[in-house]
Specification:
This protein is α/β, with parallel strands linked by helices. It contains 21 helices and 12 strands. The termini are far apart.
Amino acid sequence: MRGHPGALKREGYVVDAANEAPTALQMIGERLYNLVITDVKMPEMSGLELLKEARQKSRDTQFILMTAYGTVESAVAAMKEGAYDYLSKPLDMQRLRALVLKALEFQALVAENNELRLRLQKRSEPSLLVGASEALRKVTELSDEVARSEVTVLIEGESGTGKEIVARSIHLKSARAEKPFISVNCAALPEQLLEAELFGHVKGAFTGAVADKPGRFQLADGGTLFLDEIGDLSAKGQGDLLRVLEDGTFRMVGGTKMMRVNVRVVAATNKKLEEAVAAGKFREDLWYRLQIVPVFIPPLRERPEDIPLLIESFLEHFTSKHKRRRKKLAGEALQLCQRFPWPGNVRQLRNMIERLVITGKNSTIEVGDLPEFLRVHDQNATIFALRPGMSLAEVEKLLIRQTLTHVTENREEAAKLLGISRRSLQYKLKQYGLLEGSESAEVE
């Protein structure tokens, strides 16, 4: 592995370094690597040649290419061969860290079989889409359905819910799975650079454009383009995107030739685009074009029954990653986690569990070991919020769930507090998808 091993080691990754491609190839043959970061131009063997040779030995290893302006074409060729992404020099360490994280999450999804998948997930990143709730099941079923089509998809949900993971899952289950999955964060790019990033530019188009550079639409040709934070797209960017969605053609910045691509677009947003349309901040015609099939990922606070499985997954992963002894949460600590609203969603929960694995001295994590923000919130949590427009069924489901979570786990006692029979409570738990699978079968 070439690049900046010290920086990645400080992030907690296990990193090996090689000074030349043949050595790296030998190491890949001897050991399973999740990710390889390599220069495009190297003596004896190029980064593209290394990728092709390494894929013969380790099919699921992901590659990130480092390239200067003069070798962008080689990076594009590498992405067509299956590289995850490329970075231009000089390296932006923040972008490198973000790409490594996303590449490892992606790599866990494409493992060839279950045995390999389990081994790789322990060394990469745990999935944010773990749980047994009815809401999560619906997300999974809908994403499976749309994967078999070619429609444009809009994934909605708060930050940290796993929107990109769903987008990648749709790509991997589609007929485009062998083609590139290219992502771009619309919020991270200033308006003056977004057009060039999406559609590419020709040499001399602007100061610093020292060579032709393909855009993300060209890189994704035949595959999937993921447009994250689409709600932050500028008015001009919205117009440019609408045109290419309608006929698949565009011009590179500074170019005159019309380009045509075959790309499936999956977009994501943490904003309510319908409200943005009403406020005149987002084009209505683009919104209709994007949300042919909307997929909504509910926030973690609306599916607390997923929290125990997520915590178990995170504990297993991070104790393995950081070489700590096995840990578990005490029952009271777990219930406190289920009562917390998690504004940062699953990603916030994941980060907290990693911190507890690293700092915790005992095998059982007690309430006193949890962060202060959790304990303080629990002391003050005497009410829960309802939003206007909720159906009576949604209110009833929330009230039943909060009673069992906040007040008592005893269903007979909960039924008395709710003013219904225990049998009625059991029926409603099944009706609202709040039962485990085996319990649901018993009710029937």
